[in-house]
Each structure stands twice: as C-alpha cells, then as structure tokens.
Amino acid sequence: MTTIPSSFDMAPKEENDLDEMSFGQRIIYHCKQQPLVPIGCILTTGAVVMAAQNIRLGNSRKAQNFFRWRIAFQGATLLALVAGSFLYDTHRKDMKSKEELMREKAKMREKLWIQELERRDEEAKSRRKRAELARQKTKENEQIIQKLEDELKDLESKVTPKSK
C-alpha cells in the first residue's frame, strides 16, 4: 500500500529544530528562550571589568564593592538559569504532548482518508457493475428486437403474396 500524502509532509521546518541551526542561531535562540541569563552575564562581566579597573587605579574599596556586585550578579544569573531551565523543560513537555496530539490527529485523518478512498472505490465498482448489467440488458434487448424483427419480416413475407 502506498503512503498517502498529508498536509503535514510539506510543513515548514520548525524553528525549534536545534540540530539544523548554526552556532550563532542557537545562541540567539537560547537568548530568546532565557533572556535574563545573557543580561546577568553582561552585568557580571561589567562588574569584573570595573573591579579590575579600580584595582589598577588603586581604589580597593570600590574594587571590593564591584567584586560583591559580581557575586550578586553571578548568583542572580545562576538562579535565572535554573528557573529558566525548569520553565523551559515544562514548556517542552507541553510541546511534546501537543505533538503527540497532532500525530494522533494526523493518524485519524489518514484513517478517515483511507475510509473515504475505500468508499469511493466501492462506489466506482458498483457503478461499473451497474453499467455492465445495463450493457448486458441492452444486448439482450437488441437480440430480442432482432428476433422480433426477423419474425416480423418472416410474417410479412408469408402474408404478402409474391407478385410476379
């Protein structure tokens, strides 16, 4: 049995297909998924740079404050990463259940389509059978008509005197 074409076969590739994405596209995708993580990374990097600059200038108090900010930003980034991973995992499970529903729906559509094709096939077979029966009936009628015409000619030839 051949496979039946489906509207799902020609669907565009999903945006979530990470295997098909380049490295830069993956980074952008993950940054969109968890926007607080890159923001936290930037703030942490900024705090480290400011601390290093203050150490170089000899201002150890400001450097110490920036190092404290770095710890706070790193903690916030880690918290955002863990919370985002939890939320993303929950979202992904929901997406899988939606995909399963879509697959079930596609299977149901395929079954309905097959049933429709079988129904159409049965209708076509019954039409062919009726047409064949009609052709046979027509042939029988033509034969009967031919016999009747022959009988009529025979009777006409008997009834009409031959004049010569």
TrEMBL record:
TM spans (from-to): 36-55, 67-88
Any single Gene Ontology cellular-component annotation: mitochondrial membrane
Coiled coil: 98-158
GO biological processes: mitochondrial respirasome assembly
Limits of the HIG1 domain: 8-99
Pfam families reported for this sequence: HIG_1_N (PF04588)
Protein location: Mitochondrion membrane
Domain of life: Eukaryota
Alphabetically ordered keywords of this record: Coiled coil, Membrane, Mitochondrion, Transmembrane, Transmembrane helix
PANTHER family referenced in this protein's UniProt entry, alphabetically: HIG1 DOMAIN FAMILY MEMBER 1A, HYPOXIA-INDUCBILE GENE 1 HIG1 -RELATED
Name this polypeptide is given: Respiratory supercomplex factor 1, mitochondrial
Organism field: Maudiozyma exigua
Organism lineage string: Eukaryota, Fungi, Dikarya, Ascomycota, Saccharomycotina
Gene responsible for this protein: RCF1
